[in-house]
Amino acid sequence: MSALPRAAAAPATVAGPALHVDSTAIAANVRRAAAVSGAAVMAVVKADGFGAGAEAAARAALAAGATWIGTATLDEAVALRRAGIAAPLLCWLLPVDAAWEAALRLRIDVAIASVAHLQAVAEAAGRCGARARVHLHVDTGMARDGAPDRSALITAAADAERLGLVEVVGVMGHLARADEPADASNAAGVVAFRSAVAAVEAAGLRPAVRHLAATEAALRLPDAAFDLVRIGAGLVGIGPGLRPALTLTAPVVLTRVVPAGTPVGYGHTARTERDTVLALLPLGYADGLPRRIEPEAGVQLDGRRCRVLGRVSMDQTVVDAGPEGVRLGTTAVVFGTGAGGEPTAADWARWAGTIEHDVVTGIGARVARVLDGVR
Ligand SMILES: *Cc1c(COP(=O)(O)O)cnc(C)c1O
């Protein structure tokens, strides 16, 4: 006897806070990045796909024509392979004693930025009898994760490739100020990258993919596109001309009628300015709602903008629903595309003095992910 069949995709029955993910928006963003840049697209799904869910974002991007997947850590890449993602997969932030064997076994490409890392992955390759697929990560003006000593790295990589221990598949760089396209550091970064590619080739290496641009550069800096653009934030719609893919909602779980002058929440940092109705949302800073926000921060209730009142707590937030009140169970839109007048992730970023990336990647694990209406 076979086991009872399980519903593969039950309709969403999410009673609590939910992050709704629109895969058609992710797909549209991939196609736009490809069209504008003229390059192949790597979907960067680090930090759980910028909140969207790494696997869901990866699958939506691949279906829309992305040909590579990127992550920051090896664990993120391993999880995607184990989930059945078969596309070329690169990760770029590895400790020197990373689980190199796992990368080799699962055909995960690794970005390498130091001779110590190159030696470590080459040794692992020798032990496994497999060739490691590496991308040389050069510094193109950021002083962050690119190689501090480019020429030593290239020499070591050329030696390791001659020994059959590694295959240099790519060269990568990253730009610090691509969101300011006219800044001189961008042109300088492109020049530095070209010179790095030339140095790699002069060492006898033939990297197939050269990649410098992330979302902002892919959309604004034609000279930075090269073979492949790495699109992370752009997948969920952060970047010029893209479609927001995320909507955060929470139900009203309690309402109360209060007189003007009622102090609200921890520290009594705010008081009602009128007789009004307060609505409680089961969403707090542990779920990624910023704790420090401007007084104008608010959510949408029944098509109206309602301000947050008092401190955001760990698990809950109070909003002023106004004298007309709100029905228990009403769904508040915390942020969305903005098309219906609701706040956007960009609004929350402004209210919190941060950037959208910080807002969307902060959405916690307690918030259900709902993909195209399905939990
Ligand atoms: C996060 C990251 C990306 C993706 O950047 P977005 O601006 O989010 O598209 C690309 N490359 C590197 C090295 C990164 O760390």
TrEMBL record:
Coiled coil: none annotated. It catalyses: L-alanine = D-alanine. Pathway: Amino-acid biosynthesis; D-alanine biosynthesis; D-alanine from L-alanine: step 1/1. The active site is at K46 (proton acceptor), Y266 (proton acceptor). The modification N6-(pyridoxal phosphate)lysine is found at K46. Substrate binds at R144, M314. Its cofactor is pyridoxal 5'-phosphate. HAMAP family: Ala_racemase. Its EC number is 5.1.1.1. Belongs to the alanine racemase family. Catalyzes the interconversion of L-alanine and D-alanine. May also act on other amino acids. This is Alanine racemase. The keyword DNA-binding does not apply. Residues 245-372 form the Alanine racemase C-terminal domain. SUPFAM superfamilies: Alanine racemase C-terminal domain-like (SSF50621), PLP-binding barrel (SSF51419). Keywords: Isomerase, Pyridoxal phosphate. It comes from the Bacteria. SMART domains: Ala_racemase_C.
